[in-house]
Amino acid sequence: KQEVTQIPAALSVPEGENLVLNCSFTDSAIYNLQWFRQDPGKGLTSLLLIQSSQREQTSGRLNASLDKSSGRSTLYIAASQPGDSATYLCAVHNTDKLIFGTGTRLQVFP
Amino acid sequence: DAGVIQSPRHEVTEMGQEVTLRCKPISGHNSLFWYRQTMMRGLELLIYFNNNVPIDDSGMPEDRFSAKMPNASFSTLKIQPSEPRDSAVYFCASSLGVGAGNGQPQHFGDGTRLSIL
Question: Chain B: residue nearest A29 by CA?
């Protein structure tokens, strides 16, 4: 059974820092991996999707990497801003389903 | 263009009442997913449809839960009778295609916050 874990569970940093959020999964037979952002009281916003054949994807200040063989993905946030404060979730596509991680709650203070 | 639309945004009702949650997927998307989010269990897939047909309902917790998709632009999730432990945020998501490997991301609605007293 696929299990997805995210570390750390919570993170509080000053504005301007570069951040790394970690995601690990137990079954490497995934099709792709998706990173989401969730703001309080809101739904999930898709940030990046990495196909299993890809190593990384970039969007603005965000870069996500995937190492399928070791069951790991990282989300790198460059030059963090208070507006980046949210919960970040990774999810792996296993067969027909998305299996979600536990999330990392990020707070960036001015 | 409009995203996934869910209604109501909030629902408070008494135990034993019937609850109906509604979802309008993004136009042109042919897969629809219902999720439940709680502090204890995180995000869990309840059921998903492809081309209006239920594909996997193994996540539906009990027979009290049922979901329908009468057409490509509308789906409902019904709980009857409701219980306090059903309190959670229920999300609907849609995507193009179905199954992993199609490379299409899922797009989520803002959710329905359900409280059963």
Answer: B100
What stretches in chain A show pLDDT beneath 50?
none
pLDDT on residue B101: 47
- Residues of chain A in contact with residue B42, where contact means CB-CB under 8 angstroms, are 100-103
Min Cα–Cα distance to chain A from B98, Å: 7
Interface contact A42, partner B, CB < 8 A: yes
Instruction: Say whether residue B56 is in contact with chain A using an 8 A CB cutoff.
Output: yes
CB proximity list for A81: less than 8 A, separation 6 or greater: A15, A108
**pLDDT tens digit sequence for B75-108:** 999 999 999 999 999 999 998 876 544 667 888 9
Separation CA B49–CA B97 (nearest Å): 10
Strands B112-116 and B88-95: antiparallel
* Strands A104-109 and A10-14, sheet pairing: parallel
